[in-house]
Amino acid sequence: MESPAQTKESADRDENTACVGAKDLAYNVFARSCPSRGTLEHVTGRWGSLTLGALHDGTFRFNELRRRVDGVSEKMLSQTLHALERDGLVHRDAQPTNPPRVDYTLTPLGREVAERLRTLISFVEGHMDDVLEARGRYDETREV
User: Fold this and answer.
1) Reduced to 3 states, what is the DSSP secondary structure of residue 65?
2) How far from 85 is each of 7, 90, 91, 114, 140, CA to CA, in Å?
3) Which one of 20, 22, 66, 144 has the fewest beta carbons within 10 angstroms of its own beta carbon?
């Protein structure tokens, strides 16, 4: 028989690993097997967050988006766009022209995510002086 402490530990473990897919029940991003974790990784990864932030400004063709998200490789941007499209955050509009034209834009869900990301981006940009100062203090203590 489990002690009260073991019972609580088991309940905490179950809560952190359970992931339910029903509409009326919440997903648990902290659970390893929960699909919400993958979406969070797509959104918050370096290229996902920058791509969503860039698309917040409007519709872009692939190369326009690649120039906007400075430093992303063609391969990484392509993989990122596929993942975000699969998650329902980005819409890919391929027009049957010669040469083919493909435009990327945010879906309504993607726009909602991008607005939250833009708030975070603005916060980070607005506090970079504080961050750089903290980095300087940290580095000074490590140079002994």
Assistant:
1) helix
2) 42, 5, 6, 14, 44
3) 144
